[in-house]
Amino acid sequence: MGLIKEFIDFVKKQNIVAVAIGLIIGFAAKTLIDALVSDLIAPIYQPYLGFGTDGSVTIGLSVFKIGHFLDAFVSFIVILIVVFIIAKKMGKSL
To answer: What was the pLDDT predicted at 30?
Structure first.
């Protein structure tokens, strides 16, 4: 019983539930941002690059999927911007 009580005390002190909720919301937001990039943003820049998500370059035996990489990179940048905006708003409210 001591280990279970100690774990419950740890969860209460560290506010693990709030962190878990934040992670779940973050994963859901990433799914939405991935859809935003692949369905709305990528079709804007892909025609200018001359390839779609399937565009790839073969170097030796390796295949570098440029289209997939660019989609992931743009998703990463959008997530960074959203996190920056949220952190800035939270900083002002504190």
So the answer is: 85
Superfamily of domain 2-93: Large-conductance mechanosensitive channel, MscL; domain 1 (1.10.1200.120)
65 burial via Cβ count (<10 Å: 0-12, 13-18, 19+): middle
Span between the terminal Cα atoms of the chain, in Å: 39
Tell me if the pTM is above 0.90: no
Distances (CA, A) of 27 to 10, 21, 39, 72: 24, 10, 18, 15
Distance between CA atoms of residues 55 and 42, nearest Å: 13
Q: Smallest Cα–Cα separation from 22: which of 83, 89, 94? A: 83
